[in-house]
Amino acid sequence: MTTVALMGNPNTGKTTIFNQITDSYAYVGNWTGVTVEKKMGNIKHSKVVVTDLPGIYSLNPITKDESVAINYLLTNDADVILNVTNAGQLKRNLLLSIELLEYGTPVIIALNMIDDLKRSGIYYDIPTLSKRLGCHIETTNARNKDGISQLRDKLLSMPTDQLREKPALKLEYPFMVQQAIRQASEQLVNHFDMSPSYARWLTIQYINKNKVIRKYAVHNKLTPLLEQKEYYDAQNFEDKIFKTRLAFIDSTLSAAQENLTDTKNVEMTSKIDSIITNPILGLPVFIAIFYLMFKISFDWIGTPLSDQLNSLLSGPISTYADHFLASIGAMPFLRSLIVDGVIAGVGGVLTFIPQIFALFACISLLEDSGYMARAALVTDRIMQTIGLNGKSFIPLIIGFGCNVTGIMAARTIEQPKERLITTLISPFMSCSARLPIYSLFVAAFFPRNQALIVLSIYFLGIAVALCMAKFYQIIFHVEDSTVFIVELPKYHIPRLDIIWRGTWDKSKGFVKKAGTVIFAGTVLIWLLSNFGPSGFVTNIDQSFSALLGKMMLPIFSPIGIQSWETISALFTGILAKEVISSSMMVLFHTTSQTALIATFGSMFTPVSAYALLVFILLYVPCFATIGTIKSETGSTKWVVYSVLSSLLIAYTLSFIIFQIGSLLF
Amino acid sequence: MTLFINLLIAAIIVGLAGYEIFKITQKSKQGKCAGCDYKCEAKLMVDKARKQRN
Fold first, then answer.
1. What residue of A is the nearest CA neighbor of B14?
2. Using a CB cutoff of 8 Å and minimum separation of 24, what contacts does A32-37 make?
3. Angle formed by the axes of helices A282-294 and A353-369, nearest 10°
4. With the CA atoms of A309, A311, A314 and A316 taken in that order, what torsion angle do they form, in degrees rounded to the nearest 10?
5. Do A441 and A613 touch, CB atoms closer than 8 A?
6. Is the dihedral of CA A307, A311, A312, A318 positive or negative?
7. Segment (H or E) for A25
8. Looking at domain A175-259, does it have CATH number 1.10.287?
9. Which of A440, A461, A637, A661 could serve as A430's disulfide partner, Cβ 3.0–4.6 Å?
């Protein structure tokens, strides 16, 4: 049975390639000592086993999760290493490849994302690269499945026994380093029964201050290395090794590089970056881009299209459905359930699809153009200035799409306390589920400043999240120890197909929810507003939802909420935040946004409307998020804490905004 | 339409909604990916692995 170890830098498409070359795989528990799941699979129609290892930048681990890779090499005997690289970032990716090639096991390098490389105007001559690195190279584009079958065939047809006899890569390190490597490895071969290539690799890793190898040497009493430790460190051999590797990569890439066009792209990238990632201008540019994004999503594209859909829904669709149901003899309660309940609620939320699609299209465009990585870099600076780890911001950015995925992404944070903090603050990020209710209220109360108001809500969410993170950091005595590394790709003209795929991937969850949780929430609120203690009611004021809302009214009136309907709608928001909008449609008995907006006019002022939006932003997380907090923290205590603390923060902030706002305006 | 059919249709709609709420609470109890409606790469893999186990 042949075993393949899949290794590479993070975000090189490793998981996508793993998915495509294997047909059966399973999670086989966690890697020892860490929370990273161990994943193994079989290559289609074969007995070749592929093990997916966590993404790493080098064999010298920075975090505990990264130590999985080096421990694998020390304890397992893979027949082949499949090293997945990002072709566009080959200079950095090859630093890991060299370490793997020095290990001695046959290596296949997959130059993934080859299309992105071509788009940047560069290509590499594969035979030259292959010759210099001494290994087989395949080009792939995993997103489109290009080159995957060739890669699979290569893995299946590799004569591993013959390849094992091939010498490992030997770089020309400076004389002193070479001598040190030779002396130590000879002794390891003679006294510790190691193969020459393994002894050489182990020595290089030891000299290179690899933490795991240094522990391994102590544990196994590898005296030839232990005795020379101080000499290696005093001579700064680590630096010499790094420079040699870098020079080798530079010469290899220069020899293999073919310019498809001129190198204007590189110049352009550095010119744009001088403004976009500038320490002073970076943040204003970040805010301006987000403002423009909301302007497009709400003012320019989203709301006008949404209005069209709404007039179609509240006009012909509702009327036709009502007439049709009446003509086939449907009784009033059934017509009310279908027209005022399902159509008004589910349809009402679906009319916000233009805003959601437009916003996700903008986000996908920013991602594909290469800006999002810069945004993380810019925000990282702010995080650092208030003493937080920049790595936490990535899950928070993901939380803009959905808080659940944001919390899941917090798994990349090695420090348990930091991970807990990120989990607890993730629900404050304004997820896309809140967009329908924002759209409704900004269209009603801030028609000229829709983008600005939504932007302020998003930034308020970030500000609250950061303040809470700082607070938790002080309480938990967190010492910053993890490192934030982000890759800055070259800018390029975004591709339409990639933007569309990104938009659809992000938006389809919303469409799917319309048929599940939004539908369920709508029917639930219809039942609560049509039944009361005395059974079916014709007057909504006697319904369960009215009783519940009126009971809570004294608590909510200090934050500007004067209608029981809004309070009842807020309760259903726990199912999913989109349900708040659909519940309002049902409770106010309207399928028309225009009619709803007119009703709001008598119940809210712009200040109380803003206070309500702030409350919706921060109050109790939805069911899915609560479940994820429970499973990720493994504790009900943190779930209860998260619910109560967010409720308290939401109430306090909305109270301050409403009370001060009412005095000012 | 007779009262029975009216009631039956209403019961189906309410039943479906009730089932959805039940599913949501069950999925949320499982936590992690189950509660989320986004089909990301990791979730697709988990789903596929689960199907294979069954």
1. A523
2. A32/A71, A33/A64, A33/A67, A34/A64, A34/A65, A34/A67, A34/A68, A35/A65, A35/A411, A36/A65, A36/A68
3. 150
4. -100
5. yes
6. positive
7. strand A22-30
8. yes
9. A461
Residue A311 has pLDDT above 70, yes or no: yes
Reported as a single tens digit per residue, the pLDDT across A606-657 is 999 999 999 999 999 988 888 888 878 888 899 999 999 999 999 999 999 9
Q: Amino acid identity, residue A576? A: A
**A532 has which bridge partners?**
A535
Smallest Cα distance from A346 to chain B, Å: 12
How many inter-chain contacts (A to B, CB under 8 Å) are there? 125
Residue B4 with chain A: CB contacts under 8 Å: none
Quote the CA–CA distance of A625 and A577 in Å, as a whole number: 11
ipTM above 0.85, yes or no: no
A251 CB burial (10 A radius; 0-12, 13-18, 19+): exposed
* 3-state SS, residue A159: coil
CA B3 to chain centre: 29
DSSP string, A501-518: HHHHHHHHHHHHHIIIII
The 8-class DSSP code of residue A125 comes to -
Q: With contact defined as beta carbons under 8 Å apart, do A50 and A40 qualify?
A: yes
Alpha carbons A455 and A356: distance in angstroms, whole number: 15
- The answer to whether the A3-164 and A175-259 domains have the same CATH topology is no
* pLDDT digit string, tens, across residues A215-237: 999 999 999 999 999 999 998 89
A157 contacts A163 by C-beta, under 8 angstroms: no
Name which of A401, A404, A523 is nearest B35 (Cβ-Cβ): A404
Q: Provide the pairing of β-strand A531-532 with A535-536.
A: antiparallel
Q: Which residues are bridge partners to A111 per DSSP?
A: A85, A139
Among A405, A519, A630, whose Cβ lies nearest the Cβ of B40?
A405
Cβ–Cβ of B36/A509 closer than 8 Å? yes
pLDDT of residue A34: 46
Quote the radius of gyration of chain B (alpha carbons, Å): 17
CATH number of A3-164: 3.40.50.300
Facing residue for A25 by CB, picked from B9, B17, B49: B49
Of A258, A251, A257, A244, the C-alpha closest to A132 is A251
pLDDT over threshold 70, residue A487: no
Burial group, residue A167, by CB count within 10 angstroms (0-12, 13-18, 19+)? exposed
Q: Which two tokens stand for residue A583?
A: 């519940």
- What sign does the dihedral B2-B7-B8-B9 (CA atoms) show? positive
Q: Which residues of B touch A19 (CB under 8 A)?
A: 41, 44-45
Q: Which of A331, A405, A627 sits opposite B28 (nearest CB)?
A: A627
Partnered with residue A138 across adjacent β-strands are: A110
Percent of chain A with pLDDT over 90: 35
A531 token code pair: 């039944």
CA distance A157 to A495: 35
Could you tell me the sign of the dihedral formed by the alpha carbons of A427, A429, A434, A440, in that order?
positive
Nearest to A189 by CA among A148, A150, A224, A240: A224
A475 φ/ψ angles, rounded to the nearest 5 degrees: -65, -45
* Residues of chain B with a CB closer than 8 angstroms to some CB in chain A: 1-3, 6, 9-10, 13-14, 16-18, 20-21, 23-25, 27-42, 44-46, 48-49, 52-53
**Distance separating alpha carbons of residues A592 and A439, to the nearest angstrom:** 14
Q: Which residue has the tokens 């329908």?
A: A436
CA A541/CA A549 separation, integer angstroms: 10
The burial of A72, by beta-carbon neighbours within 10 Å (0-12 exposed, 13-18 middle, 19 or more buried), is given as middle
Domain boundaries, chain A: 3-164, 175-259, 284-664
The two three-digit tokens of residue A335, written as one number: 């017509």
- Contact predicate A550/A592, CB 8 Å: no
Structure tokens at A570: 């807020």
The Cα of B20 is separated from the nearest Cα of chain A by a number of Å equal to: 6
